[in-house]
Specification:
By secondary structure, this protein is α/β, with parallel strands linked by helices. It has helices at about 10-30, 35-45, 75-85, 105-110, 125-135, 175, 255-265; strands at about 65, 70-75, 95-100, 115-120, 140-145, 160-165, 190-195, 200-210, 215-225, 235-240, 245. α6 links the parallel β6 and β7 (about 190-195).
Length: about 270
Amino acid sequence: MTHTHEHLTPRPEMVALAKNCIPTINELLPDLIIRQDILDAYIKHDRRDFLPERYWDQAYADVGIAIPERGTALTQPSLVLIMLHVLNPQPVLTVGVIGTGMGEVTMILQDLGMEVYSKEYNQLLANETAQRLKTLGDQHMHLSVGDGLEGFPEAGITFDRIIATAAGSKISRILMDQLKKEKGEKSILVMPVGDYDPVEERIDATLAIVTGTGSITFMHHVGFQPLMSSRSGGWTYDSTRNILVPSHTLQRNSNPIRQARQRLLRRSL
């Protein structure tokens, strides 16, 4: 059971949550002031809308929430706000979301007026999330199932924005190639990349901001769940060594995604 109705007036708990994110944001990026429209879009839906009921007691804290039975996690709210801010969403522009997960980022980007393409590897999770988003007001979304680091070749377009909701082992060339590169375009890829921390069971990531012209900026270290993919830039579980490794260092096995999700997504990020 999930809490699925949309509130015309934001819940006081969501307003308070957004305010409670500010100290963390200021600590990480002292000069960053989150755009008001992004804050408004974030608090529009109850965070419980994107969580199974058993996790509702954590919904209004500025923490990431692992959801191992779904093989996914809800990212820490302050990090969601930072990523959305540096993505610079604008109405009408196209955006690709790598890792639909529970649908939170996908829904926020739609509420900001963007045409959203969103891909999830896990078929069962994708089906559940599609129903959730439909209930919440899916209007401009193109949802699909597949390896996120393949991007969206089926769309036949290049993108104004691309955002990865989990951390890769390196910046994906495939995603970079799907950004618009026309002169004067300010296309942006936001993707956490970093090294796997076996103690914390998460990726110690640096937030990479890549433009369509190839300019790359790196921001502070943050903790993210791994972006599981057989493609270069993702992570694969090496069952012979019982560790997570960058995908380009290991040939594909029978089902690396399922093995890794069950092992790694056991705690809050």
